[in-house]
Amino acid sequence: MFRSMREYLQSIYRRDPAARSALVVLTLYPGVHALVLHRMAHRFWRWRLRWLARWVSQMSRWVTGIEIHPGARIGRRFFIDHGMGVVIGETAEIGDDVTLYHGVTLGGTAWEQTKRHPTLGNGVVIGAGAKVLGPITIGENARVGSNSVVVKDVPAGATVVGIPGRVVTHRDPVLSQKREAMARRIGFDAYGQTPEMPDPVAHAVDCMLDHLHKVDEKMRLLSGALERAGIQVNLEMPALDIENLEENQVSGNQSAQPISKVIPPKE
């Protein structure tokens, strides 16, 4: 019990920089209180003590502002940040390490007593105000942007935004590893590949890294062909010496400095 509690607290510390101590989390976080009460209500629900389960769920709603049906199935290390206005339906299924923010709805779109609420894979993050509706599946480690409305399945690792929700990026693990390796090789770390929402600059940098990776592969093939022909060459690309590059900082109404001033000529 204490081991699982410590594991849960550590997972909250990783996801919420405002968490200062175990005392603060256990006594002042409504998402934690709602989860504890749901565990109790869900047990009553499985014991077919349905009225008692709904009563505990209703009490949790009054105290925390979070409504979780006692029939919902929730995995380990589930965290609701802020929490006010969160609604989770009866047939919803939530995996491990899932994070929801305030105003999220996991709702149904049918009146039949069947599977009518979403299934969330491990590591899913759903932003504030998002609505995930119907018996759809959100793949592992997917991201749903704030105020999005999702009514279709989302593949693993994808990011979804808009009304209706549309996939704006789908991270390929192999491609991501190649980009990271190329970024390290040229001495560039902050190249924009993050699990958060993509932006045009990050996309442009990723495209350049992909191009550099292909150029690097061509250079290796050319070097191998020349060596087999008896010609010794060194086509290895050196690392970028970023420490000797001067940053050109332009602020306010100051005009941009000439390139000759930004990068001093060699003597």
Automatic annotation (TrEMBL):
Q: Does the keyword Repeat apply?
A: yes
- Which keywords does this Swiss-Prot/TrEMBL entry list? Acyltransferase, Amino-acid biosynthesis, Repeat, Transferase
Kindly report, in one word, the top-level EC class recorded for this enzyme: transferase
Tell whether Isomerase is among the UniProt keywords. no
Reaction(s) this enzyme catalyzes, per UniProt: L-serine + acetyl-CoA = O-acetyl-L-serine + CoA
Q: What is this protein called?
A: serine O-acetyltransferase
The signal peptide stretch is: none
Chain spans, region Disordered? 248-267
Say which species the protein is native to.
Candidatus Muproteobacteria bacterium RBG_16_62_13
Pfam families attached to this UniProt entry = Hexapep (PF00132)
Q: Which domain of life is it from?
A: Bacteria
The record ties this protein, via InterPro entries, to: Hexapep, Hexapep_transf_CS, LbH_SAT, Ser_AcTrfase_N_sf, Ser_O-AcTrfase, Serine_acetyltransferase, Trimer_LpxA-like_sf
Family statement: Belongs to the transferase hexapeptide repeat family.
Biological-process GO terms, alphabetical = cysteine biosynthetic process from serine
**A GO cellular component annotation in the UniProt record:** cytoplasm
Report biased composition (Polar residues) as residue ranges: 248-258
* MF terms (GO), sorted A to Z: serine O-acetyltransferase activity
Per the UniProt record, which EC number(s) apply here?
2.3.1.30
